Amino acid sequence: MEFMALGWADSSLQGVKSANVVKFAAIRRSKISALYPGVRLVIPAGTFKVRSNDTDYKFRVHSAFAYLTGISASDCVPDSVLVLEPTAQGHEALLLFIHPRSPRDTDEFHSDRRHGEFWVGRRLSATETEARYGISVKHIDNLPDLLNDDVETFAIHHEDPVVDSLVKIRKKREAKLLANISELRLIKDSYEIAEIQRAIDVTIRGFSDMVQAIPAAISVKRGERIIESAFNGRARLEGNEVGYDTIAAAGSHACVLHWMKNDGDVIPGDLILIDAGAEVESMYTADITRTIPINGKFSPAQRKIYSIVYAAQRAGIEAVKPGAPWSAFHNAASAVLAKGLEELGVLPVSAEESLEEYAGFHRRWTVHSTGHMLGLDVHDCAQARKESYRDGPLEEGMVLTVEPGLYIQADDLLFPAEYRGIGVRIEDDVLVTKTGVQVLSRALPSHPDEVEVWVANLLR
After folding, report:
1. Which strand (E) or helix (H) includes residue 289?
2. Which CATH architecture has domain 190-458?
3. Cβ count near 13 (within 10 Å)
4. Residues facing 54 on adjacent strands
5. CA of residue 139 relative to chain centroid, distance
6. Which residue from 179, 295, 365, 439 lies 20 to 30 Å from 62 (Cα-Cα)?
7. Does the domain made of 22-184 have the CATH classification 3.40.350.10?
8. Percentages helix, strand, coil for the chain, rounded to the nearest 5?
């Protein structure tokens, strides 16, 4: 032990600069502070989750912690805790309790498999963390003493067993805290919008990688995994990780909405539906879907279904504007889908009748909603109250997806044989602007003619 502690050079970082997110994170904390005067708030980063026996899943910090601290994925330390300590002026004393980098004169460096730097690599020191993120830092060992008083304390539970043991669970108040943080996240600041755009740009390059991998995918069994791995490589190269498990659904697998086995063959003449998003270091993610003809050309039946979905998405995007109800873009897209199904002769009623509140016959082929919020989570702001989200209006600064689809199962006898097994979804990420909408993922082709040209150019 004495020998292990000897002979180490000073390896502290020099010239650590304040991160760009610092001023934005401070504003976010001030907003949640205003909702909880006199109340201590405890926001854990979360801890490891066991994958198998003595191995853990790769750590991903809790999104509320990421939102309120701004700490990037590479700087996050499992078991960290953000404490917003109440003062007369709000919550000016902000304490980030972390496991700072391992001192070489302790055995943590070489014997702690979860935090020791010999095992998991260098972490920021307390001083370096304070300089980069503008938050006072204390060692995690000080947390029990801080929380051992009579100050009213709310915490996010079931993320960190230490926090759970120190702070009494109040289910209703905890749910409200999560809802309040989710609702603050509904409107993105300029930093968040820029990070989402970065994630989208990486994702678009990943889609090009996947198209270029099609010949290799065709040549092997389980070629869907070639497509998946092509995207995942791009996400890891330019970002932190994938924002969610990539869907690479060839043929009739496209009709399985959350197809993530990705163990099917990639066969010329079929379509492949790819739903993928890269998560960048700030942990903001993209979420884009394209449906691509594997041989580069749509068949007449494929183009017919694709064109209906494309028109539905155009109608949905046009309905996105500040002040419109959240349901507006879903209703606009659904009307086009229902009309297309009526023209194909498969609806037992008219499109107008199917769209009535208690009918919905068109939903046999399109069971999901047309979009969701996007941000730190692929399905962002999920704890927000219904009146603020699904029953609320669209507002400037919201980022959401518009993703209609039609899915004709392989055994659906209501459709002629040439349509069976066709699944099409087109998904783009959009920003609600002051006057309307901006399609952040517009650089990725979606019109059927443009898709064919794009694929042809990449496969030359």
Report:
1. strand 288-293
2. Alpha-Beta Complex (3.90)
3. 13
4. none
5. 30
6. 439
7. yes
8. 40, 15, 45
Instruction: Give me the residue spans of the domains in the chain.
Output: 22-184, 190-458
Residues with Cβ within 8 Å of residue 327, at least 6 apart in sequence = 390
Number of alpha carbons in the 13 Å side-chain half-sphere of residue 130:
12
Is residue 81 within 8 A of residue 30, CB to CB? The reply is no
Distance (Å, whole) CA 346 – CA 326: 29
One-letter amino acid for residue 424 of the chain: V
Ramachandran category for residue 222: left, alpha or beta (phi over 0 → left; psi -120 to 50 → alpha): left
Q: Which residue has the tokens 């994702």?
A: 203
Which pairs from 333-340 meet CB under 8 Å and 24+ separation? 333/370, 333/402, 333/404, 334/362, 334/366, 334/370, 334/404, 336/308, 336/311, 336/312, 336/404, 337/308, 337/309, 337/312, 337/362, 337/365, 337/366, 337/404, 337/406, 338/362, 340/308, 340/311, 340/312, 340/406
Give the strands of the sheet with 428-432, arranged side by side. Answer: 399-402, 428-432, 437-439
Cβ(356)–Cβ(331) below 8 Å: no
Per-residue confidence in pLDDT tens, the chain, 460 aa? 889 999 999 999 999 999 999 999 999 999 999 999 999 999 999 999 999 998 999 999 999 999 999 999 999 999 999 999 999 888 876 889 998 898 888 899 999 988 999 999 999 999 999 999 999 999 999 999 999 999 999 999 999 999 999 999 989 999 999 999 999 999 999 999 999 999 999 999 999 999 999 999 999 999 999 999 999 999 999 999 999 999 999 999 999 999 999 999 999 999 999 999 999 999 999 999 999 999 999 999 999 999 999 999 999 999 999 999 999 999 999 999 999 999 999 999 999 999 997 789 999 999 999 999 999 999 999 999 999 999 999 999 999 999 999 999 999 999 999 999 999 999 999 999 999 999 999 999 999 999 999 999 999 9
Helix (H) or strand (E) holding 107: none
Sign of CA dihedral 8, 14, 20, 26: positive
